[in-house]
Amino acid sequence: SEIHEQTTIESITWRGATAVLATSVGTIEAGIVINATGPWIDEVNGVFDLPARYSIRRVSGIHLFFDGLLTPHPLFLQTASRRIFFLIPEPETGRTMVGTTEREESVPSDEVSVTEADVDYLIGAVNEYLRPDYALTRAGVRETTIGIRPLVTSREDATDLSREYQLDLHQLDDAKLLHVFGGKLTTYLSLSRKAADLLGL
Question: What is the pLDDT of residues 134-179, one digit of tens each?
């Protein structure tokens, strides 16, 4: 088998037991296509007109990094509105990570970005627990990161959200298409085993 990184798929054609993928590095043929594109899955399905029983709602979350260790151990705290946030010290880098926010996204995944409102929210949440002379400031933020959680929803009921993954198998001619909706680092092993079983591998 071969791995092609940074490869663009231009089209997918289904011919009998084979999926023919025209890509930026040439044509690739396969009997099984697995669509594990995370928060981009609905966009990919739309581009290639792929059938799917589920879709996702994308919820972003940010992390802020500050110099110094604000706590010797990880802390999970609540805001006044009872939302959870955390502080995780990183002794190996001498920094503390603070997270996270939760904002539903409507723009394409590649356009999702950190907002000042997100940053202010987290700084304010932490400062509720600190004495004023130790308060965090925007100038103290050394780095920001953002990720997107793909929350799975059924095509039949868009209000039924799940943080669990769904494997969605389709037979196109005699080829197989498997969508992986959702999933995360902590469940990738069980997900991959179930996917292999479902595909008879």
Answer: 999 999 999 999 999 999 987 665 555 567 899 999 999 899 999 9
Q: What is the DSSP letter of 113?
A: -
Q: Output the DSSP codes for 14-69.
A: EETTEEEEEETTEEEEESEEEE--GGGHHHHHHHHT---SEEEEEEEEEEEEEES-
Residue of 101, 98, 147, 146 whose CA lies nearest to 126: 98
| 50 neighbors 139 (Cβ within 8 angstroms) | no
Beta-bridge partners for 151? 57
| DSSP letter (8 states) at residue 125 | H
Q: Which tokens go with 141?
A: 């933020």
